[in-house]
Amino acid sequence: MAKVLILGANGKIARLAEHIFVDTTDTSLKLYLRDAERLDDFVDSHDKLTEAIEGDSTDVQNLVESMKDVDLVYANLAGNNITAQARAVVEAMHAANKTRLVWISTLGIYDEVPGKFGEWNKKILGDYITNYAAAAKVIEDSDLDYTIIRPAWLTDKPEVDYEVTQKGEDFKGTEVSRRSIAQIVVDISQDPDKFKRESIGVNKPNTDGDKPAWY
Pfam families, alphabetically (predicted)? Predict the structure, then answer.
């Protein structure tokens, strides 16, 4: 039975992934977040499969402890200090002798979003892109078996419908569901070679435009 450590376990995509994990796999979960009480109900109802760990994602020692018996680390992190979090995760994975990482980033970190949508995306996200690009570089410069996921603008549609672009290719589409991203994370955990050492753009097909239709 595989074991996955989820960093930022109360995030929206992470919460969806957690439900997919317990509903469709026998993977056991370690949920790492600042306030473990937020997930008490989930842990209590799946107590054989899940445990919650309270901690900050820049606390290397706590991360190392949390990683001890896991097969994959899934980082669903955010914040102005995202680069510091990336450095801490890489350092902890080295110390814990772990290699497989799934890292959620954002679109535009390689200036890969073309046309009017690319211009709009840059204007709206601003420094957010710069910070996430710096964090992704920390991951890519490491020797970890990473997958960086760069989602389009996220929706709460209850669907799994996506296509993938590689680093170096133009980004496609404008939106994708959080559920699609969560499903990709679960799929990677079940097939760890999937998207290994790749940075993938993820969008819903046929959603091209100057900005997301709903914005």
Answer: NAD_binding_10 (PF13460)
